[in-house]
Structure prediction request, 92 residues.
Amino acid sequence: MEATIQVRQRGTLTLPAELREKYGIRPGDTFRLVDLDGVFVLTPMVPMVAELAREIEQARLEAGLSVGELLNNLREQRERYYRENYAGSESG
Prediction:
């Protein structure tokens, strides 16, 4: 596909609706602009935090845990890890 776009005030560009629909681009999506010696390439940036949050939520649902149970289990794991790795190495 080839399209003509125009730079508007404040540098705003509008991507054609056909491209936004084809690639599922929504308002607020973030892209990296790479300048290849005058050829501009847009690549989507996948926010890692949001992706990780979705994966954690999916795992929580699959395990049948409430948020409280998940946090309690995390706290217990963190305490166990600390005891196993640091509790005996303190001097003082």
